[in-house]
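Lab meeting, action items carried over

1. Structure of the two-component assembly. Owner: GW. Status: complete.
Input record:
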Amino acid sequence: MTQPKHYHMSPEEFRHWGYKTINWIADYLENVENLPVLSQVKPGEIRAKLPAIPPQKGESFDAILQDLNQIIVPGLTHWQSPNFFAFFPGNNSAPSILGELISAGMGVQGMLWATSPACTELETHVLDWLVDMLGLPNQFKSSGTGGGVIQDSASSAALVALIAAREVAKADTSQLVAYTSTQGHSSIEKGVKIAGLRRENLRLVEVDNNYAMRPDLLQKCIEADLKAGLTPCYLAATVGTTSSNAIDPIPELGAIAQKHNIWFHVDGAMSGTAALCPEFRWIHQGLELADSYCFNPHKWMMVNFDCNCFYVKDRTKLIKALSIMPEFLKNQATASGEVIDYRDWQIPLGRRFRSLKLWFVIRHYGVEGLKHYVRKHVALAQEFAQWVSADSRFELVANPPLNLVCFRHQGGDEVNQLILDNLNASGKIYLSSTKLDHKLTLRMSIGQATTEKINVEQAWQLISSGG
Amino acid sequence: MTQPKHYHMSPEEFRHWGYKTINWIADYLENVENLPVLSQVKPGEIRAKLPAIPPQKGESFDAILQDLNQIIVPGLTHWQSPNFFAFFPGNNSAPSILGELISAGMGVQGMLWATSPACTELETHVLDWLVDMLGLPNQFKSSGTGGGVIQDSASSAALVALIAAREVAKADTSQLVAYTSTQGHSSIEKGVKIAGLRRENLRLVEVDNNYAMRPDLLQKCIEADLKAGLTPCYLAATVGTTSSNAIDPIPELGAIAQKHNIWFHVDGAMSGTAALCPEFRWIHQGLELADSYCFNPHKWMMVNFDCNCFYVKDRTKLIKALSIMPEFLKNQATASGEVIDYRDWQIPLGRRFRSLKLWFVIRHYGVEGLKHYVRKHVALAQEFAQWVSADSRFELVANPPLNLVCFRHQGGDEVNQLILDNLNASGKIYLSSTKLDHKLTLRMSIGQATTEKINVEQAWQLISSGG
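Predicted assembly:
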């Protein structure tokens, strides 16, 4: 028997199954509202439906799509449901999906400029666009000493900023101190761990009544550390904390960082997108004091995960911290010094063409369209907060600056946990929780692309009737 | 004027442009052979064609696709060309593209089991499958103390292994020593830098005539370090080095690592896929001595970037090194201890549903189909090596164990550089180079999914006629 020449799909088959896949997605997104938001499966239930051994012979694509429906979909928590109010949103959108599709179809790899110049240049260009779109300081543009790059997540952005800070610092790693608030993201602690700083040298600075970092207490911490012979090296502030969307006071924190020569990283993962609208740009006030900044179009700007935009004021510091030049990567373009090689701006070597989906989204919606959704979500959240305020059984835990509402039932942790569990088990909406002032607090995060007023109204009916 | 209700594409528009995008990819992949493999653009050429300011109003998808053709495609280096012989391959394939498409379309996020159980369980399941498919030691299966996870790259895999090794070690980071060979990947040096080990504490152990690490010299290094009061903690061996595809002697290295209680990481990024075929499984001999192992389906197994499969023998060590449990991520499933939360196995918090494309590929090709391509590429490379051997102007630099042939013209570095530059400027093929024994060496890497014998023959004609 002669072996078949190849097992690849023919172009005709690819077109056929490609259309079917597009239809699958269109159907999925049209119907996602009707599916239980939080998957109702039990641990092990999905695996139990999968064959224990892999197929020796290839199977039809039809069989794969059938299993997708029967096995995989029941095991999804539907992030694209308009009734998804948990964590922060992780939006996709039609142009983003198609941008990701083309990126996969091209299959180019942008570790070096030379390995696909367009992959690097489009990324630099679109990240410069975003500086203007969000009204960020010009220092982050590639035309000066700075520049932007796409990372997979705000966690990785915070980590590479910390690595750069550590390399710039003039002290042994064991002597370095990092600062964030008690409300700072867990990725800061994880980054400190990865970068090899001592865990006991991470300071969680106390916050004010709005859960924002207190500059006076930061200053005290730094002074105590200096007195103890330690070297303050990294301050991570947050524009929109995960728990409550608190906005740290960037101007005051930045001034302290500058005075003590501390790398100042600002994380606007969720809320940075709000700065598309001039009326919300106050969140970035003082950002010219930052050495690095990031926000996630993969949260609130219609770009499917992963797409974190990370900016540095001085790219040479980042590159110096992360560059290794082995023989096998040497090439004329790199040697000329005229190009950016983004491998030196990130932890992995290889990289996908992620700026395509970002470019597609900006062009499809236009700045105007993207602003529309930010305004809609903020307005819905503000309205939801009013309903909470007006109901004496509930209390607002903080004034929502943008589109996240933290609130709780007055009945205490047990009642709130029960409401949460009931809501999530119902499959009708999905909410997550946090603790603020040691009390269980419900988070209503309104930012899913297709969430309309009706979804928020239904959610409030469910919540206020006890889940 | 009333504001439009939304700017999203309608489902009908999405279907329409989705089909067009599928057609775009089908056309691109059908014609990619005719495009210059290495992009011929100059630095800045792509950016110069892009508008300086982003669009305020949304644009038609048609306009976006036009710019894709006119601006972006000329700036691509075509990794999917059958004439791409540079670096290592970065294959995509029809089922992988469609798997990535569905992942983008679902837009779920698998940081926790609860945030999409299927995203976690399919990943665990398929990574267990691969242990059987490659004949890896059972210790890497999730059913015991180990388990697999998808990382973005072998760089990140090597880094998280190093972080785990550092946490396990009973000494201060400044005292820790890491080992790889002079031919080890640059990601090891980068990982050492990121993890905060001292640069002077990375040992590059000398290699034998086949460019494989010498166990006797490793042993000497370790003894010298112990004598100096340092703590050996991490050994990174390679199954198929980047420069020459050398296979480090895993059994001997593993025995040394075990004796000295050193974390033993084995990187099979490129060549691991060969183990699909029993006749190539010798490369993994001794792998039961490894604490961690990885290979990249995104290189030679038809899964588009990114998809690195990373395995550990003892998952608790990895999780302990990377886990942080903030309040906002607490949930019933995690608390039950019955589930895997993959955020604790990696650097970022968020994660895409990457196992979908891996599952699609395995099911579409079957193990049989995937083996077919490995065998084809190895056979082509062995034949190419014979042609080089038979031509007195050229020399083989190493016996190619699998599908990478290292060779050079006898005329010295200048002649080889000229050949390389001519070939790459011609756009007909794309080759990259390395240095072995301080001499410029051409690398013929044969692994692109659609490369046929005719492509390899044409390449040799071009090379042997001086580029």
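2. GW to write a short summary for the group page. Key points so far: Chain B touches chain A through 158 residues (CB under 8 Å). The domain at 108-354 of chain B is CATH 3.40.640.10 (Aspartate Aminotransferase; domain 2).
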